[in-house]
Amino acid sequence: MDTIEFLKELSNYNSVSGYEQNLSKYIHNVFQKYTDDITYDKLGSLIAIKNGEKNYQNIKIMLAAHIDEIGLMVTGIAENGSIKFTSVGGVDPRTLVAQEVIIHSEKEIYGVIGTLPPHLQDSDSKDNAFKMEDLYIDIGYDEVKAKELISIGDIITIKREFKVLESNTVTSKSLDDKAGVATLLECVKELKKLKHQADVYNVFTVQEEVGTRGAITSTYKIDPDIGIAIDVGFGKTPELEDADSIKMGKGPAITLGGNIHPQLRKKLIVIAEKYNIPYQTELDPGPTGTDGRSIQISRAGIPTLVISIPLRYMHTSVETINIDDIKNTAKLIARFISEIDSNNLEGYLCY
C-alpha cells in the first residue's frame, strides 16, 4: 500500500484516546499481510509480530507507535441547543475557534465551534485568548432535538480533509502519531528484503495522549530486549530556535537524553552513516513526552530508543509532515534491526 494512501486512511479514522477500536481493526487488516501473528494486550494495544530467523536467545525488539489522537468530549447541552465540551488530551482552545467538527454519537452529527463575535466583546476581552468554557458547538438544533441525538460523553473530532502539499508534504489532523504507524508499515516492508534474527513486535499503542498507558501494558506483556518509540518531534518553523526543533525533509531525529540507551543510540548513528540515511539530533534531557518513557521503566528496565519524525503545528488540525522523513525513518529502523543478533546484542546493551 502506498504511504500517502495509508496515512490518509489512518488520519480519516476517529481514534480519540480510549476509543481506538475501529482504527485497530483497520491496522490489523493491513498488517496481517506483512506479519506472522497478531495479538492484543488487555488495554487494547495491537501487537503485530514479524518473526526473525530462529536463534537461541529469542531476541525481541519492540517498535511502538501510538494510534490515539487528541479530541473533545460532550459535557452538556445548553437551553438553546448548543453543545458544551471538554478536551481529551492536550488540546489548545486557541486552535478550536471556527473549526468544523464531527460528534460521534449513534450517527455522526456535524457542527461548528463558535464563540462570542468580536463586535460584542468588551475592550478588555478582545486581546485575550479564548478558554474552553467560552466555546460551544452549534449543530443547528434546539435543546430537545439535540438531546435526542447526542449524549453526554460522546466523542468529538475535528473535521479536516487530508491534503497533499508541495515537495512530498502532506497535512491533516492526527498525524501525531499516525505518521509513526505509517513508518512501521514501511519498516516491515523493508524487513521483507533483509535477514534479521530478532522477532519484531510492531506495537500500536492506545491512550498515549492521556498518559502513555498502552506502552506500559504492552511492554510488560512483551518484555523486549530493546524498545523503540517512534513518534513526532517539533518541525522547524520561523519562531522556533534550532535547538528546540528539527528540520522537515532532513530525516528522522535520534533523541539524546536520559530516556535513551547510549550504546544503542551510537549504533543507530553508525547505521545511518553506513547506509547514507539522513538523520538529526533531538535533545530531550527529561523522560520525553512519548511512549519511550514508559517502555524504559517497565519491568526491570528496557533499553530504549526514541526516534522522532519532524512535524509542524503539533496538536492542531493542520499537522504537516514530509513523506521522505517517514521512509527514511523506516529504513533506519529496519537496517538497525537487521544488524542486531545473538553475537552482538549483549555488547550493545552494556553501558
UniProtKB/TrEMBL annotation:
Positions annotated to bind Zn(2+) 1: H66, D176, D231
Active site per UniProt: E208 (proton acceptor)
Gene3D superfamilies recorded: Peptidase M42, domain 2 (2.40.30.40), Zn peptidases (3.40.630.10)
Biological process (GO), any one: proteolysis
Keywords: Aminopeptidase, Hydrolase, Metal-binding, Protease
Domain of life of the organism encoding this protein: Bacteria
GO molecular function: aminopeptidase activity; metal ion binding
Cofactor entry: a divalent metal cation
UniProt-listed SUPFAM superfamilies: Aminopeptidase/glucanase lid domain, Zn-dependent exopeptidases
Cofactor, free-text remark: Binds 2 divalent metal cations per subunit.
Residues holding Zn(2+) 2: D176, E209, H315
Similarity annotation: Belongs to the peptidase M42 family.
UniProt-recorded name of the protein: M42 family peptidase
Organism: Senegalia massiliensis
